[in-house]
Amino acid sequence: MPNMSEPETPFARPDGRAVDQLRDIRFETGIAPHALGSVLVSFGQTRVICAASIDERVPGWMRAQKVEGGWMTAEYSMLPYSTLDRKQRDISRGKADGRTIEIQRLIGRSLRAVFDLKKLTGKTLWIDCDVLQADGGTRTASITGAYVAAQIAIKKLIATSKLAENPFTDSVAAISVGIYEGVPVLDLNYPEDKAATVDANLVMTGTGKYVEIQSSGEEATYTREEMDALLDLGSKGIAELNALQTAAINAE
Prior knowledge:
Elements: E1 25-29, E2 37-43, E3 46-55, H1 60-65, E4 71-78, H2 90-93, H3 98-112, E5 124-133, H4 138-159, E6 172-180, E7 183-186, H5 190-195, E8 198-205, E9 210-217, H6 224-251
Parallel strand pairs: 4-5
Antiparallel strand pairs: 1-2, 2-3, 3-5, 6-7, 6-8, 8-9
C-alpha cells in the first residue's frame, strides 16, 4: 500500500512559470534590412526571423484563371543548428519534409484569413519564417511574428503610395496549449511539449475568432472539460500576444 503520510509533490513547470503564463515574448523589428518588413520574434528560447517581401506579380495560376487581386504565401524552414541535433537542410535532401510543408501552409492560411487579397492588386506578399533556435512552439511563434512583419510591410507600401489601403481586416496570432503532468498549461516549451499527454495549437484573431485548432492526444484521451480549459488558456495568451504585436508594429 502507498504511504499515505507522504505529501504530494506540488505541480511545477520546468521553468517555474504559472500555468497561464506566457514565456518571455519579444519582437525585434528591422532585423532584415533588405526585407520590406521584418522581425525577430522570441517565445522564450524559441527564436524565429519573419520577413515580408513584395513581388510585383501574382502566381501563374492567378493569371491563367484571371483571378482578381493579389496573393500572400509563406515559406518556413529550420536552420541546421536550430535544434539539439543538426537538422539537414531541405535543399540537401532534395525536397521539403512533410512537417515543413504543413507549417508553411498553416502560416499562409492564418494570414490570409484576416487579409483582403482583392486589395493587393497584382502583387504577391511573401512571408519567410526561419527558425534560429527551437525550444517548442516554432509554428506559433512564426505565425505571430509573420503578422507583425506583414503589417510593417503593408505600412511601408501605404506610406510610399504603392497601396491605397490596408488589406488586413483583423490581427492574428497563435499559441500552444497542452496538458502536462495532468494540468492544462499555456505556451509549452520543449520539455513540456515532449512530455505532454495532450498538445494543441490555436490560431486566433484579435477579435477572438478561431482560424485553426490543431489538437491531439499523445497516446492519451482528454475530456470536453479539459478542452474547454485549454481554449480558455489559449484565448488569454492570444490577447496578450495581440497587445505585444500592436506595440511592436506601432513602434516601427
